[in-house]
Amino acid sequence: MILHKSFQLTLIITIICHSSACNLSSYYTDKPTGQPQAHEKSESKDIVQASTYGNGDGTEGKKTASGETFDPDSMTAAHKSYPFGTRLRVTNPKNKKSVILRVNDRGPFIKGRELDVSSRAARKLGIEKSGVFALETKVLAADRERKND
Prior knowledge:
Blueprint: H1 2-24, E1 46-53, E2 76-79, E3 87-91, E4 98-105, E5 115-118, H2 119-125, E6 133-141
């Protein structure tokens, strides 16, 4: 009888441990430690503080955090945590102009700012002047294929 109870206890512990491991597996990714986790596609829109980069600030031709060469005439953006390849719809709420940008860099690293947009994107949004602007963002898709985030 003792052996039978011991077996039952072992079986219960095994089942609990296995189910816990299965539940925890959703918290882990194949991304290296310290890298941003994928943001899910969302129906919500966020208003963020944004700035522009690439217009004579010395970033043109430099490597981005994703390893790409920065081109201020590309439709790209820098974000602190969205995975590289994430596509964002970015809208200027003042004039309703909208663009789709791909995250390929990290930043901005100035308190209160959440997004840097390329010079071309800034022109299309009507914010080509320097400064900080309120922009509406919506995640369209996160690129889950890239492994080097």
